[in-house]
Amino acid sequence: MTTAAFIGLGNMGYPMAGHLARAGLEVTVYNRTRDKADRWVEEFGGRAALTPALAARDAEFVFVCVGNDRDLRQVTLEDNGAVHTLARDAVLVDHTTASATMAETLDAACREKGACFMDAPVSGGQQGAENGQLSIMCGAEPVTFERLSPVLAHYGKTVVHMGAVGQGQLTKMANQICVASVIEGVAEALSFARDAGLDAEKAARVIGAGAGGSWQLINRHATMLADQYDHGFAVDWMRKDLDICLAEATRLGTSLPATALINEFYKEVQSMGGGRWDTSSLLRRLRRHRDD
Ligand SMILES: NC(=O)c1ccc[n+]([C@@H]2O[C@H](COP(=O)([O-])OP(=O)(O)OC[C@H]3O[C@@H](n4cnc5c(N)ncnc54)[C@H](OP(=O)(O)O)[C@@H]3O)[C@@H](O)[C@H]2O)c1
């Protein structure tokens, strides 16, 4: 039986680890807040470990899905981190949206242990994780990708090898650049439709069926028009991702003017108390400016 460890049972990690257990892997989980790990074991079987190092011991594949670079460093490289107990030939797979530099650091640490590394950030949200429909962007040696791709298929609908370590994270950055502009565009279109006296719901439906359609417009317009922002990817996470994108763009000497501006808009949403609102709350910011 394939043995796996899963570290970080948040909105994404919890269902992803569940898919692995349901597929028949022997899964040991670790979560900083112990209750969630116990709840997971009750639901899916397997075992909960007290530290990332104990979870990773004897696992063929070690998956991580935590918040940011700092969290990732804590659960992998610092005391009781998973890298310390990685078996020779094991693979550490990181699903966190993190920097490409962090991927390179982890790759070097895994190599020292005779193990392999793959950065594999995801897109598709909590719903995609629950339904096993994620897009997964992978950076790894080809042989490592070959080993992992049947396993990732348990929760990934589109699993793509982008190239060497770090290229998964760079692809996720391009994804977030795209998403930020699309959401701002949808927010501006809905705000404009309202001010023009249109039936905004009807307008969203007809636009969604044509060239202006997008996942964000189709799936988010109804809740945006109802001023409800409590169900998706949080603004705090988007700010973290856009900071990563902008730092990488500076390093590359490439320009991201719209992304930089939308990052400022999200800072404003945070200052409105919206750090945990979902990312479509750019409409609430626009309406506040209109009413001022
Ligand atoms: N949510 C989405 O729609 C979505 C979509 C695509 C990508 N992502 C990315 O996926 C990653 C996880 O997102 P999420 O929504 O699952 O986040 P989340 O619900 O906030 O969960 C974060 C997980 O990381 C753990 N963690 C955080 N800091 C830690 C530390 N220092 N030491 C140990 N464990 C730590 C948390 O443990 P506790 O339970 O103890 O807090 C929790 O298990 C993020 O990088 C995010 O950007 C999220």
TrEMBL record:
Transmembrane segments: none annotated. The keyword Oxidoreductase applies. Gene3D superfamilies: N-(1-d-carboxylethyl)-l-norvaline Dehydrogenase, domain 2, NAD(P)-binding Rossmann-like Domain. Residues 5-163 form the 6-phosphogluconate dehydrogenase NADP-binding domain. Residues 166-285 form the 3-hydroxyisobutyrate dehydrogenase-like NAD-binding domain. SUPFAM superfamilies: 6-phosphogluconate dehydrogenase C-terminal domain-like (SSF48179), NAD(P)-binding Rossmann-fold domains (SSF51735). Keywords: NAD, Oxidoreductase. GO terms for molecular function: NAD binding; NADP binding; oxidoreductase activity. The active site is at residue 172. The keyword Cell membrane does not apply. Pfam families: NAD_binding_11, NAD_binding_2. One of its GO terms (biological process) is organic acid catabolic process. Belongs to the HIBADH-related family. This is NAD(P)-dependent oxidoreductase.
